[in-house]
């Protein structure tokens, strides 16, 4: 396994020998056993885990950097935050700058939380499980046709339409998550997600049955 980490994007051009970094930090850190980064650096998989996170970023995220600020790499919703591919409770503060970040929505970021595997597909599965548990009732909400909806009063009709849209959006997210996240999608699917065309994304390509 490489001990030197290099350029992961044009915005982060640096090269660093992780063994040297470990030795320098441990020798100068005043916190000792209280320092999470010191404890991590003594683990056998310290180098391999950081390299894995950076390799995942290069392979899966760099080709999609044109979507930065648009789509969450996990579920395909609008990205609002950035998610470190390794959590703070593993890296501590000293290693935090070495961990690549990916665009994420608020829900995915909070759902992944302290999950310690950097692979996008594995992290996507964590979010999918959370959605199925938290939104089980919404995922089963009955879908009504425009003709059926027209029979209700305006207020109730708008409420039903909003809940149907929520179900469609949740199903779209689950499709993306179950496939391993946005990096695993064909380009035309990504384009439909970017413009919020869930109907075409689900009905035309995936034969989603309401």
| Structure classification | mainly alpha
Sketch the major β-sheet. Answer: 2 strands, antiparallel
Q: What's the domain count?
A: 1
Strand order of the largest sheet: 1-2
The number of helical elements comes to 11
pLDDT average, as an integer? 83
Number of strands: 4
N-end to C-end Cα span: 48 Å
Approximate shape = elongated
Evaluate the radius of gyration.
21 Å
User: What share of the residues does DSSP label as strand, in percent?
Assistant: 5-15%
- The unreliable regions are 205-210
Q: H/E element string?
A: EEHHHEHEHHHHHHH
Helix content: 40-55%
Characterization of the model:
- Helix 5 (106-112) crosses helix 6.
- It is elongated and about 75 Å long.
- The longest helix has 26 residues, at 154-179.
- The protein starts with a strand and ends with a helix.
- It has helices at 18-28, 36-41, 46-61, 88-91, 106-112, 120-134, 136-139, 146-149, 154-179, 187-194, 198-206, and strands spanning 4-5, 16-17, 81-84, 101-104.
- With 210 residues, it is mostly helical.
- It has one domain.
- A two-stranded antiparallel sheet has the order 1-2. It has a two-stranded antiparallel sheet with strand order 3-4.
- Residues 205-210 have low confidence and may be disordered.
Summary?
The chain has 210 residues and is mainly alpha-helical. Helices cover 52% and strands 6% of the residues.
Question: What is the fold's blueprint, element by element?
Answer:
Layout: E1 4-5, E2 16-17, H1 18-28, H2 36-41, H3 46-61, E3 81-84, H4 88-91, E4 101-104, H5 106-112, H6 120-134, H7 136-139, H8 146-149, H9 154-179, H10 187-194, H11 198-206
Antiparallel strand pairs: 1-2, 3-4
Helix pairs in contact: 5-6, 6-9, 9-11
